[in-house]
Amino acid sequence: MSVLVFIEQREGRVRPVTREVLGEATRIAAALGGPVVGVAAAAGDADLAALAEAGAERVLLAQHPRFATYDGEGYAAAVEAAVRVCSPQAVLFAASAMGKDLAPRVAARLGVGQASDCTHVQAGGGALIATRPVYAGKAIQRVRFPKSPALLTLRPKVFAATPKPGARAAVEPLAVDLSGPARERVLRVAAAAGGKVDLTESEIIVSGGRGLKGPENFRLVEELAKSLGATVGASRAVVDAGWRPHHDQVGQTGKTVSPKLYVAVGISGAIQHLAGMSSSRCIVAINKDPEAPIFKVADYGIVGDLFEIVPALTAEVEKLNAHA
Description:
The chain is α/β, with parallel strands linked by helices. The chain is 27% helix and 26% strand. The chain has seven helices and 17 strands.
């Protein structure tokens, strides 16, 4: 029973989150007793053989000019074609912007169920049970799949990659029927300036909320983030106020993140925000309100004036960096 993994690429580079998905696929495949197969869509030749180092034993490559940029309809056709070829027990995607768009398309084509934003997968006896948070993280749902294949999107930064240095995978061409007219087309992808690491792939995130009182004070968050080598995030209230762009938003209507360290500065902890960051490994909250909901999920809480605490914390981190 094979496990199929969608290989997510951007500008010809395999995204790190794909290696996490391949790592979990390796564990699931071992329990099911089958191989890990990757499926990729590209406009031209792609060097995917090295994906064996992340767990893929075989990679199916669909090539078409339409695949120069993300093509939801075409990519779904490619994944469906791969399912027909290898008859997998499960198909895994990253719970990224691309994966969240693509997985439901494939599920609809195959007429099977899909579990989104999974944080754990139990495999054994030829069956899969997925665990996923629901109701803004207030409850945990366990999902069993009555039909095969099971489609799952996996939350980034939750699953570990399992590198196998030096391994190489066989890359095979995959035929995809794209003879019909395309109903949609991506004209261009506008990347954020400055080469900022995507929030979903960040190891450390420092997020700011309305407690900063104004966009000009976000420099405090940016300075702390720089000292920690972190990415800057924001609450929904801040984004709605126009202080930060939407791609910085963490929460149910923004991005779901699971970094090693999450620092919440001036964030009260609304339910939708907690849903997007409560699976972080270590949460540090800085807020002047001791009753703020953020403290209920924080591993470490600092009650006080962020305008005093954050500069002092930044100075201490910079001292440690200087002596490292």
